[in-house]
Fold:
Amino acid sequence: MFQRVNSAGLWGIDGMIVSVEADVHDGLPGFVMTGNLSRETREGQERVRTALKNGGFRLKPKKITINLSPADARKEGTTYDLAMAAAVMGAFGILDGSGLEDGMLVGELGLNGEVKPVRGMLSLVMAAKEAGLRRCFLPRDNAAEGSAVQGMEIIPVDSIQEFIHMVTEPGEIPRFYGRAWEEFGEASQDTSDVDFSELNGQAVLRRATEVAVAGRHNILYIGPAGSGKTMAARRIPTILPALSQEESIEITKIYSICGLLPKDTPLITRRPFRSPHHTITPTALTGGGAVPRPGELSLASGGVLFLDELPEFAARTIEILRQPLEDRMVTVSRIYGSYIFPANVMVAAAMNPCPCGFYPDRSRCRCSTWQIKQYIGKISKPILDRMDVTVEAAPVTYEEFRRQGRNESSAVIRSRVTKARQIQTARFAGRIGDTAPRAEKAKGKDCQRVRFNGEMGAKEIEAFCPLGPEEESYLEQIYQRMNISVRGCHKILKVARTIADLAGEENIKKIHLGEAVSYRSLEEKYWG
Structure:
């Protein structure tokens, strides 16, 4: 007999529907699996056979053939176990599989018949909805995560025995439906245990951080140890606007696939902040591996990636960020396919000006000129060009350090940032960026849609950053005097556009350009 049921697997951060076909016929007893399978997927035959035996289902000695279709797509993981068990039992006539045509079955089987949770459930349920399926049988521990997909019928399963009972007695199925976005609680950054009001002094650093966040520009802090660089960076999430539903779902998918989604958190509603140690490998930062998984760059998508002590990172690790920061995605290619991981991230980096941290204060700095150049030189010009804002953290005076209760709170700064971003949302509504692949543009996908000033390409800069005669003359003088690149000039225009948005100005003025230029002047001071 023949039986087919629906399951799903992961491809990158997205789900793909997989048809699990089982055929049972006379012949030499055996269990054969086909369909471009990984080792852990192929091992599912032993889990299925043993789980059915311990569940009280005795299978006759027959030739069992299972195919996972489409056969040209690589199947990874253990998500297909429950579907394989259902297909085998349907082929043996133990259950009637006709009632499973509109459903998806996902879950790993234990040898005792227990249905165990799997990674990436949100992506799998979303794939089922897009394929037109109506309900999903999935492990109970994954039920809350699956319920984040509105409109899907979620049926939690504890064991293979319970699943058989559900199929034979459909009237007794305990089911619930995907919940609306509002039911997961309002997304907010107000619950953080840190606040910008705790950062005394450093008016320039605070202003530069606000500008960077408002336009989602990458920012580089330079200054001696203990001047507040890390303190400011760790408070960036507190001035970011609340997550949208689209952003929350994308972030949750990434964390679920990596196995980092807490059991009591079916949907992430706060922006991530990732701060990897400087010993991190390039693969761990951008993603990859034998079975490609997202890296820290993707885990920070929608939030902040903080690279503290930037020169201490390996040169290859820093340089590998060049393309992802421009394209806002990471492409990992393998012999059996390519995987695309998101990198919609704001990068904040911090560094000392020299090995001891006191340069250019020569009364305290004991580093030689060669040591300073070697240390600063670890950050290449291409990486500097991708930092829209560079700000110096000056030493804090005793009076500033002891001052209490006079600083703006994160809530006040966030209100200004939110208004500036609303202006950008209206400006770029529906606009596809230059970095979007042609295939995605043709399909009308919005995963590469321009949302912030920091994401503008050449066409957007030309359209939304017009300058008057006075401003044009000023920028020309800066371009020639500072000997900046075309990319650097574009960075100045993008930052100036953000400063104008914060001021509520429709056009970029000379004062806005002047502030934007000041955020690039440190390159000349330290790098020459």
